[in-house]
Write a structure and sequence with these properties.
Elements lengths: L6 H14 L1 E2 L7 H7 L22 H7 L4 H15 L1 H9 L7 H18 L10 H32 L2 H19 L4 H14 L5 H14 E3 L2 E2 L24 H15 L4 H7 L7 H19 L3 H8 L5 H17 L5 H8 L5 H14 L7 H5 L5 H12 L1
Antiparallel strand pairs: 1-2, 2-3
Length: 398
């Protein structure tokens, strides 16, 4: 249970969180590739696309941040930037700064979330951007957890839900990270049951996103610059912790979705080895698919949204079924981060046996991610397969 803390508890908890939550999320072996290729692609930046990828010479605070490795000094400069240009533009500037995608940069961008919570309360969350894998959300939500417990989290999630599906799922995921960090890495199962408490307490709260956040935090969280010894990981057992009997089956989807990113590191980036030795050997068919889904998302940043790279990496899957599945997941992942061109190119290039799965996935996402003023009919017209162009028009006209 998350209790509502006293002011002193909040002060102590907040101090502890600042020290402990150096959150590295994503793939350590290709932090820089992830940043440049864009798990959250710069194609989704819209107006910020026009900015150069290196803004250090244009923005004095960014230049100062890049000149030191001292996190306290970096925070001081980032705070100046936020105060001068506002949290929205400051997040854009930091994202486009060329800073290495490390746990320290992630923690630095927590400051944007800290600022938004202190200034606007629960309503400020919608101003967070998903840069550096949701670090603003994490900073914001950790304040909410520390200050008001589940009641404050529930209030915050109301704003997440009102902001739409994408923001709501991102919030639930970030809450999973926060729950594990809050209870301590030894207490993985307690963090998972806290997600269940949120499901009961908060309207329309998506449990999987929360479980997924818990397991991602378990894999990548860093304490004082090194992985916490309390994490549930075993290099000698590539199935662990997904095979641990203490973890209820209902949580295992979140575990298997993250396991490929961990084993990718153990195998030093050998995608085929992860596919053959891990995912292909998962006996439960649902979890096997979840594992391959996680592996497909693992390689997504490396593909740069290019159809030929997607097909190349996905060709490493063990058979045509999983090659098609990998390709479809990558098309959907590209769409979800704001790339509304390459997903259709990817589906157009997929093996004929995989077109149904690929196009259906992308087309179903179009309404879920539709923005005000976005013309779905025009987007359907980008599909070169006439049959699927017609089906897209029909599906989106209903």
């Amino acid at each position: 249970m998350i209790e509502n803390p006293s002011p002193q508890k909040y002060k102590d908890s907040n101090k502890k969180l600042v020290i402990l939550l150096v959150i590295i999320i994503g793939i350590i072996a290709f932090f820089v590739v992830s940043f440049k290729a864009g798990i959250f692609s710069t194609k989704s930046l819209n107006n910020t696309e026009e900015k150069t990828q290196s803004v250090a010479t244009q923005i004095p605070e960014i230049e100062a941040i890049k000149s030191t490795e001292n996190l306290t000094e970096q925070k001081g400069q980032y705070q100046k930037l936020i105060d001068r240009v506002g949290p929205s533009e400051a997040q854009d500037d930091l994202y486009l700064s060329g800073l290495p995608f490390t746990g320290q940069t992630h923690l630095l961008n927590h400051l944007a979330g800290d600022y938004l919570y202190k200034k606007f309360g629960a309503a400020g969350l919608v101003q967070c951007k998903d840069y550096f894998l949701s670090s603003c959300y994490h900073g914001f939500l950790l304040h909410a957890i520390a200050q008001g417990g589940m009641a404050e989290i529930s209030k915050t999630y109301d704003y997440c839900r009102d902001a739409g599906f994408a923001v709501a799922s991102q919030c639930a995921h970030a809450m999973g990270h926060g729950f594990l960090a809050n209870v301590g890495y030894k207490n993985l199962t307690k963090a998972l049951t806290t997600c269940d408490e949120a499901v009961i307490t908060i309207k329309d709260f998506p449990p999987f996103n929360c479980y997924d956040g818990v397991f991602m935090e378990n894999i990548w969280a860093v304490h004082d610059g090194t992985p916490s010894p309390d994490r549930w990981v075993k290099e000698s057992d590539i199935m662990y912790p997904c095979n641990d009997k203490r973890i209820d089956k209902k949580y295992l989807g979140g575990c298997w979705s993250n396991q490929p990113s961990l084993i990718y590191q153990y195998y030093q980036g050998d995608v085929k080895k992860v596919a053959d030795n891990l995912c292909a050997k998962v006996t439960d068919e649902n979890f096997k698919q979840t594992c391959f889904d996680g592996l497909a998302r693992q390689i997504h940043p490396l593909t740069e949204g290019k159809a030929e790279k997607v097909l190349s990496y996905c060709s490493l899957m063990p058979d045509q079924r999983w090659k098609n599945f990998c390709t479809s997941v990558n098309a959907g992942a590209s769409y979800s981060v704001g790339d509304h061109i390459s997903p259709f190119q990817i589906c157009g290039a997929i093996d004929q046996s995989g077109k149904e799965e690929c196009y259906s996935r992308v087309i179903s996402m179009m309404k879920s991610y539709q923005k005000p003023g976005e013309n779905l009919a025009e987007m359907c017209a980008q599909i070169t397969d006439k049959e699927w162009q017609d089906r897209c028009q029909n599906m989106n006209s209903n």
